[in-house]
Every structure is written in structure tokens, then in C-alpha cells.
Amino acid sequence: MRKLIGISMIVLLSACASQTTQPDDDETAGNGMGSGMGGSELMGSDSGRPSYFNQLNDPTSILSQRSVYYDFDSYTVKSEYRELVLAHARFLRDNPSASVMLQGNTDDRGSREYNLALGQRRADSVRNMMTLAGARDVQIESVSFGEEKPRTYGSGEAAWGQNRRTDIVYRGE
Prior knowledge:
With 173 residues, the protein is an alpha+beta fold. The protein has a domain at 66-173: CATH 3.30.1330.60. Helix content is 36%, strand content 13%. The chain contains five helices and four strands; from the N terminus they run ααβαβαβαβ. Strands 1-4-2-3 form a four-stranded mixed β-sheet. Helix 4 (112-132) links the parallel strand 2 and strand 3 (140-146). Helix 3 (82-94) packs across helix 4. The longest helix is centred in the C-terminal third of the chain and has 21 residues, at 112-132. Residues 3-46 have low confidence and may be disordered.
């Protein structure tokens, strides 16, 4: 039911976004970071996707970083990932038609049920930080994969540390 409401909100927002608006005076052509919908959500001519995807995939941008890593048995966002989460929150705030799925993951220690719950708490901790920073709740879906979607296989802290994460996945990528 929650997913249906989210989809309905996206459809409504898309209908609103289709109206043309004039860019604000402080928006520069092609920067894609304006506060209005004028320049930030124009469709890219070659891919049919919104032009903001270019920003998301620019390797020099913090927005190209999409994973938040955690300590063992923790769902607290570490201070080293705070700016990353806030940058994505600002991006969502400035691009109302953009939306993300936050995918909570764990390492393979612990029961399946425990890991699903921990993965959900991890995704929700990023979601809460994003909404407090200005992203709208309807732009964010949080899910848990528990231990089912490892980034690295194996035992030991190197592998486990890569699997304790929340991935930020933009819709349409």
C-alpha cells in the first residue's frame, strides 16, 4: 500500500513538473543546480533521461558516491558520511522529480531475521537524515536486503565491512 501511495505521489508530482517555469535570476544556464525546476530537470537530449543524471555520475562530484558504511551491529551514520548524505538530500530537495531507493545491507553474521531488521534500520537512518535536511518523504523509499546482496564474498573484516552499508540508488538509472 505504501508503494502504491508513493507511485501515486510521483505521478502527481510529474504532472506538476510538466508545467514550464522561468528560471530564477540566480540560476545559470546548464548548471542543473537551480532552486526551481527551470534548469534542474530538463530532459537530456541523447538519453531521454533528466539532465540531472549527468551530475549524479560525475566522478568529481560527491553525488557519485552512493554508499554509507557502518560499524558492526550499528545503524548510526558515521560522521565521515554525513556530508555525503546531506549532499544527496539537498539534491533531492532541489530536484523534486528525483527519487531514491535506500537499500540497507548487512554482513552475513547473525540470523536472517536479525539482518533484515538491521538492514532496514540502516536504510531508515539515512532516510531520516535526508528528510531532516529537506528531502521530501515521498522521494525516498527504504528497503532492507539484509545479507542477501553482498558486495564482497568471504569472511573477515575486509569483506564484512564492504557489506555493512546503505546504497543510494536513484530511480531511472
